[in-house]
Design a protein that fits this description.
63% of the residues lie in helices and 0% in strands. It has eight helices and no strands.
């Protein structure tokens, strides 16, 4: 992956990666990784799962910080703020699709037009940010992308994780 793709991603999300392997993995689809015979841990799938959990955690925390305290209301607000459509819109707003390494079949089918696929790519980027810089970095990126309202929050450990 050309370094310029990582730099473009960093500029768009407002975060500079310490370990360049994280964004490379976040931008590599499983189909592409298999075509290139990459190792099992060099595609975005696990990062998308991690990113999904990090997004849920930080959005719920943001809701609590902004005064939403009832379980039912937290659930309703979280579903409004975090869903496939919202994540796809965020991915489109940062023009994520051209940065992703797609498999040949995916390119032929233009799978990025599917909301689910772009949403997963967005989740993978957040997972990569979390692995690289911890919860504080992920919080900052989600704030930059407009998914949460509270920019920072002190952690008990003091290191943002």
């Amino acid at each position: 992956m050309p370094e310029i793709q990582i730099e473009v991603l960093e500029q768009r999300i407002g975060y500079r990666f310490f370990d360049r392997a994280h964004p490379r993995r976040a931008l590599t689809r499983l189909a592409y990784a298999r075509e290139q015979q990459f190792g099992d841990d060099q595609d975005m799938d696990a990062l998308a799962t991690l990113g999904d959990a990090v997004i849920d955690l930080l959005v719920i925390d943001d809701l609590l910080q902004t005064g939403v305290t009832r379980k039912g209301e937290i659930t309703v607000q979280k579903v409004r703020r975090v869903n496939m459509s919202v994540l796809r819109t965020i991915a489109e707003s940062i023009d994520l699709a051209p940065l992703v390494l797609w498999g040949k079949g995916e390119e032929a089918q233009e799978v990025w037009l599917s909301g689910r696929v772009l949403a997963e790519c967005c989740e993978a980027v957040i997972g990569a940010v979390f692995l690289d810089g911890g919860l504080g970095a992920a919080r900052q990126v989600l704030w930059t992308l407009g998914l949460i309202n509270t920019e920072t929050r002190d952690s008990a450990a003091g290191n943002g994780r």
